[in-house]
Amino acid sequence: MQTTYHKANTRGKADHGWLKSHHSFSFASYHNPERMGFGQLRVLNDDIVKPKMGFGTHPHQNMEIISIPLSGALSHKDSMDNKRAITVGEVQVMSAGTGLQHSEFNDSKTDEVNFLQLWIQPEELGVAPRYEQKHFDLSKRENQFQTVVAPKDNTIDDALWIHQQAYISLGNFDASQTINFKLNNASHGIYVFVLEGKIEIDDQTLETKDALGIWDTKNVAMNIQKNSKILVVEVPMN
User: Fold this and answer.
1) How far apart (Å, rounded) are the C-alpha atoms in residues 192 and 218?
2) What CA–CA distance (Å, rounded) separates 236 from 186?
3) Is 118 within 8 Å of 66 (Cβ atoms)?
4) Which residues belong to any copy of the Quercetin 2,3-dioxygenase C-terminal cupin domain (predicted)?
5) Binding residue positions
6) Is the dihedral of CA 74, 89, 123, 14 positive or negative?
7) Could you give the strand order of the β-sheet that contains 83-87, starting from the edge strand earlier in sequence?
8) Which residues share a beta bridge with 224?
9) For residue 10, which phi and psi values (nearest 5 degrees)?
10) 35 near 25, Cβ under 8 Å?
11) Distance (Å, rounded) from C-alpha 180 to C-alpha 220?
12) What does the pLDDT look like over 162-178, one tens digit per residue?
């Protein structure tokens, strides 16, 4: 098993006043040649948007974009005539494909929005743009991983699908147990991102917003040291 450790405080930072963002990988003005992504995972941004502020209309192309709210609600509007709010418990996917435009806005007058945005490189370019979001039963991630995103040709349960052999899973775990994560494909790697809590993997301790990239293994044992919420992104490494 090979690993790469990313401590929370080593992420890139941006503070635009209305937006505070932490970048796990190179993004916008943050450039680190040693952090250009993990396999086909290109972006993992941890964004906090102030009330009544947001991202104006902007374009995307040939990227699978996944948004996961951690607190608050984010309003979405795009060039495909979708206009919806995304809230905690929901996951949103967009295939930018041949091109689309969208905006994201915090409509609340009082509460910040904290959400994760992930970009995964597609296995096929020039696909028709698409948008989908859904609410997931949070009870199904108690002390187990719930797959919320999966490949188009290998969907799992009620997972949303994307144009890549990638999987995104979320789990909420009680302390003092060991969880075994089995990769869907042994040639893939996983990027483990601790949303809250404290865990240990292969003698490496991870606390809130720490991450560990792992590859060259079929299974990963996670020792849950404190009550924890965990995101796992499984992607092809080539």
Assistant:
1) 14
2) 10
3) yes
4) 155-235
5) 58, 60, 102, 104
6) positive
7) 54-60, 100-105, 73-78, 83-87
8) 177, 199
9) -100, 0
10) yes
11) 6
12) 999 999 999 999 999 99
pLDDT tens readout for residues 37-89? 999 999 999 999 999 998 888 888 999 999 999 999 999 888 888 888 899 99
Tokens read off for 43:
């972006």
Residues belonging to the binding site for Fe cation are: 58, 60, 102, 104
Predicted TM-score (pTM) above 0.90: yes
Q: Which residues pair with 110 in a beta bridge?
A: none
Cα–Cα dist 114/49, whole Å: 7
Give the number of other CB atoms < 10 A from CB of residue 132. 13
DSSP state of 38: B
> Which position has the token pair 């009620």?
158
For residue 222 the two structure tokens come to 């996670």
The CA-based angle 127-132-135, given to 5 degrees, is 155
Domains and CATH numbers, the chain: 2-236 (2.60.120.10)
Structure tokens at 82: 């979708």
